[in-house]
Write the structure tokens for this entry.
Amino acid sequence: MDKVCPTIEEAIADIEDGMAVMIGGFGGSGAPIELIHALVDRYKKTGSPGSLTVINNNAGNGKIGIAAMIDAGMVAKMVCSFPRSSDPRAFTDRYLAGKIGLELVPQGTLAERIRAGGAGIPAFYTPSTYGTQLSEGKPIAEFDGRHYVQERWLKADVALIKAELADRRGNLTYRKAARNFSPLMATAAKVTIVQARKVVEPGGIEPEHVITPGIFVNRIVEVADAKQEEALLREGADT
């Protein structure tokens, strides 16, 4: 099955209001900037998709990427580990105004909750937040004399991720640290949409180099000259 879309707009066309959207990236590393900004452009033209729950490591920086989504008013809730950044104004301003929700999750727990969602594990126990505000209202259990907090899986309607190479059947590789959360998110979403630096024919990726198998990928769009969030911030880019 050929999973390549001719345009980014077609790839994201069925993302709807109220969806949960996982977005790959650790800061700018691995962030699918073109997919994100295509969504922002669509929202500015049509008012949709809005009221999104966005799951990511952080809550954006400046007015680029996820911060641009927040600044546009598309995001109802962030599920993340780091809502602060070098320029967190987009999230901070809306949060202090009561216009956006926040579910704060330790980074390791965030990754494991996403992995659990993809693996079909409804809940697991971790000691990470025991005795803190983040454990309030959650089941606590004791194992071998130590207290653990129950955490639930995280799943999403859509995952937006960035790959280095993709073949037409959806098999993916990643570039170094840009891999981060993306392989986990691809397994935990109903629909995974990928922007790849290069699309090759089936067989163009050595099987042992495949990180995300094509079974977890629904759509691919080639973006040969993808923008980097940090470079855009240095240039003073604005949505």
Summary: The chain is about 25% helix and 25% strand. Helices lie at 8-11, 33-46, 66-72, 89-96, 107-119, 182-188, 229-234.
